[in-house]
Amino acid sequence: MKCPFCGNDSDRVADTRARNGGKTVRRKRICLSCNKSFTTLEEIEERTVSVVKTDGRREPYDRKKLLNGIRIACNKRPISIDQIDGIVESVESAMDGVYEVGSREIGERIIQALRKLDEVAYVRFASVYRNFQDKNEFLQELDNLKKHGHEEKGTP
To answer: Band of the pLDDT at 37, cuts 50, 70, 90?
Structure first.
């Protein structure tokens, strides 16, 4: 590490402290050339996951964007923030070890989770995600939900 005062790259560490639950390390260093002290911060370098959009564009994964989309679909529904966080965490755990993930894969995982959790939130999210163009597509989705919803719950 170069000294910010004299530019020498020889120093010794005088103190080390973990911060942020061990995600960050703060080190007090003393330059061996000018004897001035300075502080450095070390943190884990997070790898960036890219989301491949349907048109082929790539953009960095954004947890806030995902949370916002799910929250909008769940607005005024009996769904807790913890349940929404659980959906996002399950999507993120499926992305472990990958550098790219398709937006369709993310959307389908959310749709499946919402379908099990709340039918209204599911239809809201599906209408945006699947880009319904008219009321017929919306009604068709409701019919599918009605048919498959009864099968899943074991009712005739």
So the answer is: very high
CA angle 72/73/75 to nearest 5° reads 65
Contact 27, 40 (CB under 8 A): yes
- Strands 37-43 vs 24-31: parallel, antiparallel or unpaired: antiparallel
Nearest to 99 by CA among 56, 60, 62: 60
Kindly report the CA angle at 92 between 87 and 98, in degrees rounded to 5?
155
Q: Give the tens place of pLDDT for each residue, 43-92.
A: 887 778 999 998 999 999 999 999 999 999 999 999 999 999 999 999 98
- Can you say whether residue 51 is alpha, beta or left, with left for phi > 0 and alpha for psi between -120 and 50 degrees? beta
What's the half-sphere exposure (Cβ side, CA atoms, 13 Å) at 131? Answer: 2
